[in-house]
Amino acid sequence: MRKVILALLSFLLIFSSFGCSPKETKLTNLTKVTLMLDWTPNTNHTGIYVALDKGYFKERNLDVTVVQPSEVWPEQAVSGGKADFGISFQESLTQYVVNEGAPLVAISAILQHDTSGLIWLKDSGITSPKDFANKTYGGWGSAWENAIVDYVAKENGVDPSTIKKVELGVFDQITGLQKKVYDFTWVYYGWEGIDAELRGLKFDFYSLRDHIKNFDHYTPIFITSKSMIENHPEIVKAFVEAISQGYTYAAKNPDEAAKILLKYAPELDKNLVMKSQEWISPYYLDESGCFGVMKESIFRNFTDLMYNLGIIKSKVNDVNTLFTNEFLPCKK
After folding, report:
1. What is the mean pLDDT of residues 168-185?
2. Which of 24, 50, 142, 199 would bridge with 246, disulfide CB 3.0–4.6 Å?
3. Tens digits of per-residue pLDDT, 300-315?
4. 244-300 residue pLDDT tens
5. Where are the domain boundaries for CATH 3.40.190.10 in the chain?
6. CA–CA separation, 195 and 177 (whole Å)
7. Could you tell me the pTM of the whole model?
């Protein structure tokens, strides 16, 4: 008996070393759902394509169509019923819910930490944000983005009105820097930062989560509608289980996962995808090896920051209305 117990304990120990193993919810009938990306395919999306390629959706009787945004953004598409799931960002989700009353909920994080920051070339005349005066910033023009750039400027003794702001235009962000269309811009290191490295550029990167209190947040995230959760919880559960399995695989097998992404998006630069995947895969899982888990404290601190910066109209009394870990194989 003692040997049997020891054998069982050994098995459990080995099993637990693999982190949280996604459970499997199989829907009764084949169910078609639409997932809208936030942009063109990149390594933020790798786990989706792994789930497609490995049959994780199919195993759960899900037929998933992946689309890119065109006339509307994912938040609008999911709110309006044009997509069942979408990829958003914590700041976008919060603005849509608080300012516009959108019936949206975050159902999974993709990365456990924000990886964005401001970037400039070493020959731009900028050595730190203290040099932003009379420089040109290239961005998307969103209220959130402008508020953060202005905040960084003020914290470094620069009058934000002295910064010229232009929209990114036809160039990707790194090409825009190279062509001197603007002096600095906001990028996600796992893609544009790696791109700058591969181009051999000499640059500085100002990590926002390292310099702004409570800035660290979940970006990007998977979202769905409240009605989807209320009326079709089993579909949400099956979907979240499949993406969890896909991203967990990508975290542990970055090279193979990158090749799968390239299979579905052959237009992407191979070297960039391979290097980006190697860099970003560790961000998929938390310290206990779980994918997607979101913490109340992160939502609360970041939402307060957004309110203090004037991005949202009112405080959120209960941030748990913005997200749920309910459907994740790993719940905390």
Report:
1. 90
2. 50
3. 999 999 999 999 999 9
4. 999 999 999 999 999 999 999 999 999 999 999 999 999 999 999 999 999 999 999
5. 23-113+217-321, 116-211
6. 12
7. 0.91
pLDDT in tens, 122-160: 999 999 999 999 999 999 989 999 999 999 999 999 999
Distance CA 150, CA 310 (A): 12
* CATH of region 23-113+217-321, choose from 1.10.540.10, 2.60.40.420, 3.40.50.11190, 3.40.190.10: 3.40.190.10
Question: Regarding beta strands 164-167 and 85-88, do their DSSP bridges make them parallel or antiparallel, or are they unpaired?
Answer: unpaired
Adjacent-strand bridge partners of 204: 120
Q: Please compute Rg for the chain using Cα positions.
A: 21
Q: What's the CA dihedral at 70, 239, 246, 48 to 10 degrees?
A: -10
229 in helix, strand or coil? helix
Report which of 35, 97, 96, 23 is spatially closest to residue 63, judged by C-alpha positions. 35
Give phi and psi for 186, each to the nearest 5. Answer: -105, 125
Which fold is adopted by the domain 116-211? D-Maltodextrin-Binding Protein; domain 2 (3.40.190)
Structure tokens at 175: 């090409």
Task: Give the separation between CA 308 and CA 76, rounded to whole angstroms.
Answer: 25
Give the distance from CA 241 to its chain's centroid. Answer: 17
Residue (of 135, 308, 138) closest to 214 by Cα position: 308
Helix pair 233-252, 254-264: axis angle to 10 deg: 120
Chain mean pLDDT for the chain: 93
d(CA 175, CA 189): 15
DSSP 56: H
